[in-house]
Amino acid sequence: MVTQEVPDLSTCLEEKHSLGESRTSCKEVLNTNDMKKSEVSEVMSKAGMKPKSMHRAKIWSDDVENLYRFQQAGYRDEVEYKQVKQVDEVECWPETGFVKKLQRRDNTFYYYNRQRECEDKDVHKVKVYVY
Fold first, then answer.
1. Which residues pair with 103 in a beta bridge?
2. Please, what is the average pLDDT of the chain?
3. Angle at 69 between CA 46 and CA 72, to 5 degrees
4. CB 3.0 to 4.6 Å from 129: which of 13, 48, 51, 100, for a disulfide?
């Protein structure tokens, strides 16, 4: 098993200044464990990150429900929606946390109910992207 240690920001800056060039790409070091999901997606959308891999959902969850809603409206996920529409927050239902309203690329609005809309037969169609 090969392990690779991720250098911290100060090490990268020292390397860059001492060598006159950067051997490692250290634009930003993010600690996503201390952030909320919305903060992580906000940072990713500002950084213009693209997904590294994709897999299909196997069981329903709150996250799968929201991904289903974004993908119905024509977006990969919340990150892509925020990049394309240049919005800071997505409108959500306060009771459930599910997405309430999305604007498609052709400026048509999709309005969603408070309760679950992704049926069990549609769960396997939802794509889950890994960043």
1. 109
2. 76
3. 100
4. 51
What is the C-alpha to C-alpha distance for residues 18 and 44, in angstroms, rounded to an integer?
Answer: 30
> Is the pLDDT assigned to residue 2 strictly greater than 80?
no
CB-based burial label for 74 (10 Å; 0-12, 13-18, 19+): middle
Beta strands in 1-131 (DSSP E): 53-56, 101-103, 109-111, 127-130
pLDDT of residue 29: 34
Please give the Cα distance from 81 to 107 (Å, whole number).
12
Write 78-84 long-range contacts (CB < 8 A, 24+).
Answer: 78/38, 78/41, 78/45, 79/41, 79/44, 79/45, 79/49, 79/131, 80/45, 82/41, 82/42, 82/45, 83/45, 83/48
- Residue ranges in 1-131 assigned as alpha helix (H): 9-19, 37-47, 62-72, 78-85
Instruction: Give me 130's structure tokens.
Output: 């890994």
Name 62's bridge partners. Answer: none
